[in-house]
Amino acid sequence: MSMALKQVFNKERTFRPKRKFEPGTQRFELHKKAQASLNAGLDLKQAVALPHGEDLNDWVAVHVVDFFNRINLIYGTISDSCTDQTCPVMSGGPKYEYRWQDEHKYKKPTAVPAPKYMSLLMDWIEVQINNEHIFPTNVGTPFPKTFMQVAKKILSRLFRVFVHVYIHHFDRVNQMGAEAHVNTCYKHFYYFVTEFNLTDHKELEPLKEMTSRMCH
Asked: What are the binding positions for Zn(2+) in this chain (predicted)?
């Protein structure tokens, strides 16, 4: 890892505090298991597979939080070059525009500049993952029936961050010497969502060509 990159990632230029797993909890053990697979250099395709005897909801919950933290960090590295002026809409090239919608202020899909979209998105995800009724932290507390639906929505929206970063800010990623890191994170994310069918194919469309080259 280059020094510049080390500085960037050490600063943890995220928008938000990281959601951490409490040591001693089942989630923490799963988080360690997932990290160990990656650190051992295990093929990413294999690393995403559900470990024997583990619960799928738990495995997905751990990865949703982990991807939220990582993608937050990636966006943090290029956020100084993503402004209301450079990115007046949240887009992925000329064909794709993402509008923000939530249950509160933005009841209808609304066009907002990319930095505003990112801020709304990270706030919204943080609320979801810190909601005990959606992401229970106590072992034995069941996940709600809607959990997978919420996880899919979070992951689909996080995918849009990759789309925007790759299509509009990849020169900045290169400048920071972060290309290998971002590519690895993308591959990990892509293999995970496709392994468990957590994102609609139409969401994956904007990066289809790149993905076919990168993720054989």
From this structure: 82, 87, 164, 169
